[in-house]
Design a protein that fits this description.
Layout: H1 14-22, E1 32-33, H2 47-53, H3 68-82, E2 92-95, H4 97-109, E3 120-125, H5 130-137, E4 141-146, H6 162-165, E5 168-174, H7 186-199, E6 202-206, H8 221-228, E7 235-240, H9 241-244, E8 253-256, H10 259-272, H11 278-288, H12 292-311, E9 326-330, H13 334-345, E10 347-348, E11 350-351, E12 368-372, H14 377-391
Parallel strand pairs: 1-10, 3-4, 3-5, 5-6, 6-7
Antiparallel strand pairs: 2-8, 7-8, 9-12, 11-12
Helix pairs in contact: 2-11, 3-11, 4-5, 4-10, 7-8, 12-14, 13-14
């Protein structure tokens, strides 16, 4: 029996890999999960009520692109949050979470060749793993660009050779970045869009953590592109209610871009995608229109950032990030640190190497662990103190 080879070189996904590493050993204390970015702040209080009011919608096929109410709510949020005016009919599509969009937009928009050669898809390294799988799926060459402390934890795409940039069809960027929590400034995004215009590629901007930050308010690549007067098809943005509104199980997000990009993305969805169920769309419309719950959650994250800074005071490189809800903590070896924490304290964290690829013998995540600040404050503080005393004491 024949099987495809295109995915044969994929490493095991991060969390099965972590289970293989840790689960053969007994925990050294009460188990505390600080691995997965699953928000545990309160969801908006009206979610159940809106879902119940629209429960009959499960008996109908849902709108493929998003109901008018949902698309209008998303367009309204983009206007309030980023000052960007988009046409909800032509420029937005609802998503079953951004992973779907980040994957399928690459399939829909990446050409078979670029300047007569195999196309390149640029991805930061470390990165959200779907970026690389999307590139592999459409036969592009994924190029992993280090996003390290030396580069401000954002990829230096401008430093790539011209022959790579001339083959580039898509460049993924995540801001605030996962796992490091760096924010791409207006200048960074402007330079990236200029680079994309010079070498004729699209920027896929994953902005799922845009509402979790300390002082600097993250901007959107779409916002910067509009300010520059760039081609409206140059930038594709992705957002989700998972992090913004503490609703990871809702699987609700959106993609927005120029009308030609969106036409192609929607066309693919009509053949191969699964639209959001009607009741979920009704809940999502209400959630995008509400900011009170976002403000309350944001306040809790800022308190956790401050708490983390207190716990790790004096430990170089262990300060809380600009944004997002992960600590990206320096260690000698991520796997060894994760094993030590598990067997001595019962705390589970993710080795940074599981989020990165080795390039030229270097894995930029090898000397880090990712720690999620998603639990209630008291639990988070207890875990961070145990972690500090175990690894840095």
């Amino acid at each position: 029996m024949m099987f495809p080879e295109r995915f044969s070189n994929l490493p095991e996904y991060a969390f099965p890999r972590l289970r293989s590493l840790l689960d053969v050993h007994a925990p050294g204390g009460e188990v505390m999960h600080m691995t997965i970015g699953e928000p545990r702040h309160a969801m908006p209080p009206f979610v159940g009520e809106v879902l119940a009011e629209n429960i009959a919608g499960f008996a109908k096929y849902p709108n493929n692109n998003g109901t008018d109410e949902l698309l209008d709510a998303i367009a309204g949020w983009l206007k309030r949050r980023f000052g960007v005016t988009v046409d909800p009919v032509t420029d937005i599509m609802a998503l079953n979470g951004t992973r779907e969009g980040l994957m399928n937009a690459c399939i829909a928009l990446c050409p078979e060749t670029k300047n007569g050669k195999q196309p390149v898809v640029l991805t930061p390294n470390p990165f959200y793993q779907v970026y690389a799988v999307a590139a592999t799926t459409i036969g592009a060459e994924p190029v992993f660009v280090p996003a390290t402390r030396e580069t401000g934890f954002l990829p230096d795409y401008a430093g790539l050779p011209s022959e790579v940039l001339d083959r580039t069809a898509i460049a993924y960027i995540c801001s605030p970045s996962n796992p490091q929590g760096a924010i791409a400034s207006r200048d960074y995004l402007r330079d990236l869009i200029f680079l994309a215009e010079k070498h004729d590629f699209k920027v896929f901007s994953d902005e799922c953590y845009s509402e979790i930050y300390r002082d600097e308010v993250p901007v959107s690549a779409l916002e910067v592109a509009r300010e520059m007067g760039a081609d409206p098809e140059r930038v594709v943005i992705f957002h989700s209610l998972s992090k913004r509104s503490n609703l990871p199980g809702l699987r609700s997000g959106f993609v927005a871009s120029g009308p030609e990009n969106m036409l192609r993305i929607r066309r693919l969805r009509s053949y191969a995608g699964a639209p959001l169920p009607g009741p979920i769309q009704a809940v999502s419309a209400r959630v995008w229109a509400d900011e009170d719950h976002v403000i309350a959650s944001h306040k809790l994250y800022v308190e956790k950032f401050d708490m983390a800074d207190e716990v790790f005071a004096g430990i170089q490189g262990a300060e809380a990030p600009q944004a997002g809800f992960f600590l990206w903590l320096p260690v000698t070896d991520g796997e060894e640190a994760a094993m030590k924490l598990w067997t001595e304290t019962g705390i589970r964290v993710l080795p940074g190497a599981y989020l990165s690829r080795e390039v030229n013998g270097e894995n930029p995540g090898k000397h880090y662990i990712r720690v999620a600040l998603v639990a209630p404050k008291e639990e988070t503080q207890r875990g961070l103190i145990q972690l500090r005393d175990c690894l840095y004491g």
